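fyi for ur records
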Amino acid sequence: MIAEIDEEGGRVIPFNKPLTRYTRRLSDKILIAFHQACDQRDLEVAAELLKILETILTRRPAGGEKDRRRSIEGLVAAYERLWYLRHPDAGQG
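which gave:
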């Protein structure tokens, strides 16, 4: 029997059973990591994470058109945040 060890409980999970440990989409996790990188002022990592996120969002459509639009809006907002972090004087007018 081919199986996987559950990291949290140490249980053996056969591969023929669906795993339910992934509760968020990968794109959501990358966006969270982007914001953490911004909070830590690691702008190079933040930019790389946005490139990866853009690849994911443009490669295949998400679940529904509404989810896709919301994901793209989140990507645009993330690029905007990164731009303002790189240009702190631009926000002052």
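The two ends are 66 Å apart (CA to CA). thats all i got for now
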